[in-house]
Amino acid sequence: MSASIAVLILTHNEAIHIGRCLRALEGVVQEVYLVDSGSTDGTVAIAEGLGAKVLHRKWKNYADQFQWGLDNMATEAAWIMRLDADEVIEPDLAARIVAELPLLPADVVGVNIDRKHIFMDRWVRHGGRYPLTLLRIFRRGHGRIEQRWMDEHILVEGGRTVHFAGGFADHNLNDLTFFTDKHNKYATREAIDVLNQRLGLFARDVELETDSVSRQAALKRWIKEKVYNRIPFTVSSLLYFLFRYIFQLGFLDGREGLIYHFLQGYWYRFLVGAKLMELERGIAGMSDKQAIIARIEEMTGHKLG
Q1: What is the CA radius of gyration of the chain?
Q2: Could you tell me where in the chain the CATH 3.90.550.10 domains are found?
Q3: What is the pTM of this model?
Q4: In angstroms, rounded to a whole number, what is the distance separating the alpha carbons of residues 89 and 174?
Q5: Beta strands in 17-153 (DSSP E)
Q6: CATH superfamily of 5-171
Q7: 10 Å Cβ neighbour count for 31?
Q8: pLDDT tens for residues 195-254?
Q9: Band (122; pLDDT cuts 50, 70, 90)
């Protein structure tokens, strides 16, 4: 028995990663689809050389791009896998997918897997960073991606989810300049999401349910939106870093871990709060929603409509 799988990957200048990602999928998936947003570094040629089918579309945000890819990939595969170009399915998880996915009963529509983060070539095991349980495999026709500007998850309906243990790594090979630039852009997107949560400017998926994503993801979203985002960022970002680094034992991750937990657990969270404050000041005194949206678009460079 076998279960047909099509993987969907979004790319922009991922030549450093895409070959590694696709080679790890050999014997696991039957089709690979890329939605590329204008790569100029050979990403497309590498992917096509490894058998991938490439679609092309201008970038808006991750959720919009992924859903477009999901709607436009011409596949009859029974299952869809969501993967980023810098992620790698390791042999033990690959073997489990091949052996067990075909045996799942019809009422199972999603599979959660555990992602580990590799930073500066070190596995970040502490600080609440492992395992990060994410729903990444789902039956075709039973899943969609949340329409949000940041922290988007796959949502499934029509059945239950199960969990597969095994190696699944986020291992970006770029340098710290790339990391900080990427998180600076993430911070803008998250600030937009938080502001929209407060003002209701445009449609968004508002909450995760434990029957549609992993319990971990649903709990973390609830804590972030119901507790964390209501605390002044000058306090919440520091408390979050200390919680991760001390109480969740982040200090055991060594120097690389200190860099990661400080940048991702403090600097990034502080930056989100600072950008949110900047946006709120930029729209102070405004009441018309369309005018507010136009002002946010002007300040961020993002088209929100």
Answers
A1: 20
A2: 5-171
A3: 0.91
A4: 19
A5: 31-36, 53-56, 79-84, 87-89, 108-119, 122-124, 132-139, 143-145
A6: Spore Coat Polysaccharide Biosynthesis Protein SpsA; Chain A (3.90.550.10)
A7: 20
A8: 998 898 887 765 566 565 677 877 887 788 888 888 999 999 999 999 999 999 999 999
A9: very high
